[in-house]
């Protein structure tokens, strides 16, 4: 049985997803949320196997939510559901290890297949998204960005939010010494002079869009 949470700010979309997954006996919806804060509460109560996450959640962003949830210890699987995604969003999703991305316009059987694939520990990215990535030739800067590890990416995002080393360490559950090592690696890989430039870089890449409500 796959215990799943639906995170989408549109009630009709959640209802539609629930109707689709009800066709599959091995999927159990343990909760629904309209925003990131609600989802985190439900996750703490139910410990789901998979969270189906809308990429655009009004004031929230699905990718930011996933990173925040993981930083809080919610290491379940995540499947993004969206009508569209930019090349930067696709690369960020891959960089932070998001297990899957599925189109909202997908056929019911395609969504069920995506859920099954991700739940079994494999990755599922809709062919449309993969074609988009292949059609966008990365620049030198994008190649350098792609070399960042998932943890370095998390640190970079925290820098973009103006976090101090102490705050980053607390947020990501690592030591300040480790934070300093990650910052040095980030600056070296991206050819940046200091953490201020790193923060500006994070903003320019669209990595920092909002602050999740605590």
TrEMBL record:
One of its GO terms (biological process) is phosphorelay signal transduction system. Coiled coil: none annotated. SMART domains: HTH_LUXR, REC. SUPFAM superfamilies: C-terminal effector domain of the bipartite response regulators, CheY-like. The keyword tRNA-binding does not apply. Residues 3-119 form the Response regulatory domain. Keywords: DNA-binding, Phosphoprotein, Transcription, Transcription regulation. GO terms for molecular function: DNA binding. Residues 141-206 form the HTH luxR-type domain. It holds the Pfam family GerE. It comes from the Bacteria. This is DNA-binding NarL/FixJ family response regulator. The lineage of its organism: Bacteria, Bacillati, Bacillota, Bacilli, Bacillales.
């Amino acid at each position: 049985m796959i215990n799943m949470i639906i995170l989408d700010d549109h009630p009709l979309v959640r209802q539609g997803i629930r109707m689709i997954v009800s066709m599959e006996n091995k999927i159990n919806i343990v909760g629904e949320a309209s925003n990131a804060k609600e989802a985190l509460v439900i996750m703490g109560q139910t410990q789901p196997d998979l969270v189906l996450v809308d990429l655009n959640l009004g004031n929230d962003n699905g990718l930011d939510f996933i990173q925040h949830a993981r930083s809080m210890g919610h290491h379940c699987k995540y499947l993004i559901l969206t009508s569209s995604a930019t090349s930067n969003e696709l690369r960020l999703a891959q960089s932070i290890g998001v297990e899957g991305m599925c189109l909202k316009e997908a056929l019911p059987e395609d969504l069920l297949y995506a859920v099954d694939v991700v739940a079994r520990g494999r990755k599922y990215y809709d062919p449309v998204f993969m074609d988009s990535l292949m059609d966008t030739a990365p620049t030198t800067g994008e190649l350098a960005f792609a070399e960042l590890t998932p943890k370095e990416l998390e640190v970079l995002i925290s820098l973009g939010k103006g976090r101090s080393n102490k705050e980053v360490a607390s947020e990501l559950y690592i030591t300040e010494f480790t934070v300093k090592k990650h910052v040095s690696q980030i600056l070296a890989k991206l050819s940046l002079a200091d953490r201020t430039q790193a923060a500006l870089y994070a903003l320019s890449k669209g990595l920092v869009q909002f602050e999740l409500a605590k």
